[in-house]
Amino acid sequence: MKRKFTKEHIEKLRQSHLGNEPGNKGWNYYKIYSKKERQEKFGYKNKGKKAWNKGLTKYTDERILKYSISLIGQKQTKEHVEKNRQATLKRWKDPEYREKTIKAIMKGKWTRPTSLERRVLEVINRYSLPYRYTGNGTFLIGNKKSNPDFVHILKKICVEVYGGPWHPTDYEKQRGNYFNKYGWSTIFINENEVRDEKIILDMLD
User: Fold this and answer.
1) Sign of torsion over alpha carbons 85, 87, 90, 95
2) Structural domain harbouring 169
3) Whole-angstrom Cα distance, residue 83 to residue 78?
4) What pLDDT digit, counting tens, does each position of 149-183 carry?
């Protein structure tokens, strides 16, 4: 059974650590270990193993609680922030990493398909229209790896289903121009049109 720490216990530990210098201050992982040593010690050796802290929080595990408290008051320097930013930009240039990251973000961002997308999907399935759902990040277009909601299975036609309030007024123009740059034509179905099955059929047929 996981142990549950009270707020009083957490606050007591927090107070006891205030003003203490972290034990790993100045410790540089890359200077201490060579690339081969890092791979042997921290990489391949643990490949496939379950992370020891998976599912644990500072409220259920004292090790995580103590580490969380040790970070209180610490601030990253501008140099450290810039170093992390440059490292991220470097990784982002890798198409495989970028695509994998975007798909992961799309998968966890919100429940898909949305209610509007489900309505269009129902019509597509009911009339066996030649479109497939891609709004969950399974299909990306262009350098920005933009994700359309539906794509035609034979032609370069994509479909965007959207609600007005949370999109800019020139959303269709911006989105359409972007997809058109890569040879795709775009069909837009807004939240008012999606209520009418006949309109959906006319637009997708």
Assistant:
1) negative
2) 115-204
3) 8
4) 999 999 999 999 998 666 778 889 999 999 999 99
Torsion of CA 133, 135, 139, 141, to 10 degrees: 120
- Token pair 């957490």: residue: 10
Q: Say which residues have a Cβ less than 8 Å from residue 25's Cβ, sequence separation at least 6.
A: none
- Collapse the DSSP code of 190 into the 3-class scheme (helix H, G, I; strand E, B; otherwise coil) and give the result: strand
Do 191 and 126 belong together in one domain?
Answer: yes
H helix runs in the chain, sequence order: 7-17, 29-32, 35-38, 62-70, 78-92, 95-109, 115-126, 171-181, 197-204
* Prediction pTM value: 0.51
pLDDT digits (tens, 9 = 90+) for 65-117: 777 777 776 777 888 888 888 888 888 888 888 777 777 766 655 567 888 99
- Give me the number of domains the chain comprises: 3
Candidates 6, 25, 23, 21; CA nearest to 65 is 6
Q: Could you give the C-alpha distances from 102 to 106, 124, 142, 161, 163, in angstroms and in order?
A: 6, 26, 13, 19, 22
pLDDT (tens digit per residue) in 52-61: 788 787 777 8
The bridge status of strand 157-162 relative to strand 185-190 is: parallel
Identify whether residues 119 and 166 lie together within a single domain.
yes
